[in-house]
Design goal:
3 helices; elongated
């Protein structure tokens, strides 16, 4: 592989990582805000005596969801040929 090909892969990987990192950060912020509102609404309904919450079962659902997301991200990064540049760009995009 030529030097130009390697540089092109690094450039594409870095750019792709930046875009994905930026998007993941935005989506994660929106998701966490919605989860906070959801939990606050559950607490309000519980304080009014409308519902009863089983917290262990509630958080058990989300624990499994986050574990499967972590596995998905690990497999995605492992399969990318330009993962070093991708991770660098992801970090920069996530910090932006």
């Amino acid at each position: 592989m030529s030097l130009e090909g390697i540089l092109a892969d690094l450039g594409y990987g870095g750019f792709a990582g930046f875009v994905v990192g930026f998007a993941v950060r935005r989506v994660l912020n929106i998701f966490l805000m919605l989860m906070g509102l959801y939990i606050l609404s559950l607490l309000w309904l519980k304080s009014k005596g409308i519902i009863d919450i089983h917290w262990s079962a509630f958080f058990g659902v989300f624990k499994g969801m986050f574990e499967s997301f972590g596995t998905f991200v690990q497999e995605l990064v492992r399969k990318l040929a330009f993962s070093g540049a991708f991770l660098g760009g992801f970090y920069m995009g996530f910090k932006m």
